[in-house]
């Protein structure tokens, strides 16, 4: 739920920046909050998986991966629901303004096709956002679960580098 909370918080801040009607503020907030969300989720995933590894004895890579994948599924559900609700309750004039900007250069038949999709936009947003979050979280979980179990090849049991002669073998 922490992942979903961070993502929903970033979404809410982006929406608040959008209320200002200042293009620079909207763009800056979108870029900064995207970076916070992207890298924040990476750090949270790392800390959650390290916490699992440190808390329980016998935790293997599969366990940390499974935890991350489940977190991605739940957080994706939360964020997708929040984004679908934002679109569902978007003011009509805002939606009309966006549609006008998108369909300005389209023919009348293309405009009709786009307007047919608008009615299902919350559903499409929900499905694609949930899929994106789940795939991103699964890939991130896979990378992080391997990362936290990596052992340095040249370390001995005490954590010190082993003495290796860096001279080539004589033939």
What does this protein look like?
Helix 2 packs antiparallel against helix 3. The protein starts with a helix and ends in a 24-residue tail after the last helix. It has helices spanning 2-18, 23-55, 61-88, 92-102, 108-118, 121-147. The chain has one domain. The radius of gyration is 23 Å and the shape is elongated. By secondary structure, it is an all-alpha fold. The longest helix is centred in the first third of the chain and has 33 residues, at 23-55.
Quick structural summary:
This protein has 171 residues and is mainly alpha-helical.
In what range is the share of β-strand residues? under 5%
Task: Give me the strand/helix succession.
Answer: HHHHHH
Distance N to C terminus: 61 Å
The SS-based structural class is mainly alpha
List the helices and strands and how they pair.
Blueprint: H1 2-18, H2 23-55, H3 61-88, H4 92-102, H5 108-118, H6 121-147
